[in-house]
Amino acid sequence: MNDSIPQLPEYDPHPDLWARIEADLQADELLSRRLPDLPSYEPKASLWHAIEQNLNTPEPTRVRPLRTQRTSRPLWAGLAAAAVVVLIGSWLLLRPEATDDVRIEYAVEQTDALPGQEPLAPASESLADKRAEEFIARQCAEQQLACQRPEVHELRNQLASLTAEQQRIEREQQIFGNDPVLVQAQVRIENQRAEVTKELITLLRS
Amino acid sequence: MKQLLVTAHRVGMALVRRLGLAVFLLFPAMPGIAQVSMQVVTKVVEKDLPYTDGQRIRLVAQKADVVVKGWNRPTVSIRLRLVARHPDRAVAEREVAYHQYVLQAENGRIELSNQFIIPQRAGKLQSQLKAIYEISLPNKALLILKNSFGDIRLTDLAGDVSVNFEFGKLTLEDIGGKLTVVSNYGDIDGRNLDGTLTLKAEKADVSLRELGGTAVLQSRYGKLTVFPATTSHALTIEAARTEILIATKRISDFKFDVISTFADIRVPDWLADQLSKYNGKQVFTYQPAGRKPEITIQNSYSTVVIQGEKTLVDR
Amino acid sequence: MFRLATPTDKHEQGPVRNDPVRSDPVGKDLVEQCRATDRPVAQRAAQRQLFEQYKRAMFSTAYRILNDYDHANDALQDAFVDVFRNLDQFTFRSTLGAWIKTIVVRQAIRKQHLEGRFLTIDEALHDQPAPFRDSLTGAELDAAIRTLPDGARTIFLLVEVEGYAHKEVAEMLGISEGTSKSQTSYAKKLLRQRLS
């Protein structure tokens, strides 16, 4: 065609180049077909609670724990916290409650139970809970399919939420001691945990 | 596999043992335990606040028993009892001061709250602390109530009430208007509700008698027992893993549309042919003659029982 | 607080792939209720509803990027707090899902401390990895994605799963477009090597 340019030699590509190109294209196609099938996951059941706590940060009604985590918080944080306590304290003292009609009443009640006993269960999880957790984790590791069943997923989420609630009650008990309403709440959670755990174990065994 | 079964059995037994222990520890009233005299020190605060129509009342309570009653005076009347119980009166007197409260009108709203402020140096709390509110307010008032670890009782209200609570029990009696309830682990016992009820319960036992008006009940885990009244407009239940019992005086007073997944629907024998089952689902559709309020139920993994005039169905 | 990404045209158009978040848009009403500070109870209920609607899709994204259940939960928590605190800035120019997703992705990237650190192609690759098996399932693919190095995994997910353009990914991670492209193709090769 154009004789003024000397004919450069032509070279053949590697014989399997088309096969490679085709394999690349196929891989891309298969990948885009499978990506929509990726499983989806559920966050921790307690997450909303944590978000709500965060959104509520200036909430006035918080119990001030007796011994808050004395971790390696810098000095300024301690001072700032102290200042806040002093401010709240003085606000509470100076608040115009004078218009309220306030009186103190005294009474005596007979009761069976002594207050301020040690909380009923140890603060940490029991050995039975640990074993149940280990059993569930092991079953899930060994039978991934069984564990992906929605009902198993749901129950595991429930268990996580009950555990979070249990820990919360334990924190309250650190402050209020063995208060009957807290003990009732604790027993309720324990029972539900037991129920869910049993149901989960039955499901995983079946 | 055998090993797994053995482990599972062991885990189950350990749980049972632990529960047994919990029950044992919870009821320590055994022969031989002497009775103790408890000194009860109560700080009583009383306050009346004028109420204007449309004003919002917000009650944020902690560990409180709350009684709210509607009346026809334009006043919010509050009696707040802040209680400390301990065998030693000096301790109870010292610790009753850990209660703090707010009862005031602020920015056009009425703010009521209590909290516990325990000084860091005070060491572990020794008394039982508890707050008790007795509140009377105009029955058309707008009330927002939040509480944890305490019982709530609401009566004679017909405004716009919103309750969010956990643990403890909520008793509702003679409520109209708009009512929104969110409960976590808190049981609910209602009677004569005739308005617009929206209820969201998790792990709660809910019982509603004479339920009229429009109700949307959402429940996950727990029990739901409803006695619908003929004044009902519509009852919708969206539930999961909730044992549901609908007890009507006469089934033919209502239209039913019930779907249950992986669990049974039980209806009286004479309605058995309205029940269909397929693919793990059961559907009960029943449409008596005439215009009847509709009861729509969705549930999964737990039984739905529909009872009528002949209460032969057992749960 | 980090800067929120301006949604691109690509996000305005919606999903590249089947994405429950973008195919199920949230109404303006719910967004308005989430902003209603004068009605705290309704506001909180609306926020919860929005969270419930998006949590699964958003968590799956964060979990895949971070490859750690607890970190993914932390990222999602921070992201949703940001979402609710910044909801006033959302102008409906994109879908809400796309807007939230960008916040979640940025939180996940922050948690991973990926910015400016990578990205070598350090694993030996066969010249010609075998093609994927036809029987490949989503779960198998998911498991293989988890084995990818952090950088390549994140970029692959953002480009191929979330549908971001290389340019956007480059901006989010502070890398060049070229790096985004080469890491994506590196990730694909590794996947083929592991799934053949």
From TrEMBL, chain A:
Keywords tagged on the record: Membrane, Transmembrane, Transmembrane helix
Transmembrane segments: 74-94
Name by which UniProt lists this protein: Uncharacterized protein
From TrEMBL, chain B:
Protein name from the UniProt record: Uncharacterized protein
Domain of life according to the entry: Bacteria
Automatic annotation (TrEMBL), chain C:
Annotated signal sequence range: none
Span of domain RNA polymerase sigma factor 70 region 4 type: 140-191
Coiled coil region boundaries: none
Gene3D superfamilies: 1.10.1740.10, Winged helix-like DNA-binding domain superfamily/Winged helix DNA-binding domain
Compositionally biased tracts (Basic and acidic residues): 8-26
An annotated GO BP: DNA-templated transcription initiation
InterPro entries associated with the record: RNA_pol_sigma-70-like, RNA_pol_sigma-70_dom, RNA_pol_sigma70_r2, RNA_pol_sigma70_r4_t2, RNA_pol_sigma_r2, RNA_pol_sigma_r3/r4-like, WH-like_DNA-bd_sf
Record carries keyword Transcription regulation: yes
GO MF annotation list: DNA binding; sigma factor activity
Short name of any one Pfam family annotated for the protein: Sigma70_r2
Ranges where the record places region Disordered: 1-26
Domain RNA polymerase sigma-70 region: 50-110
Record keywords: Sigma factor, Transcription, Transcription regulation
NCBIfam families linked: sigma70-ECF
Family: Belongs to the sigma-70 factor family. ECF subfamily.
Protein name: RNA polymerase sigma-70 factor, ECF subfamily
Organism: Spirosoma fluviale
Biological classification of the source: Bacteria, Pseudomonadati, Bacteroidota, Cytophagia, Cytophagales
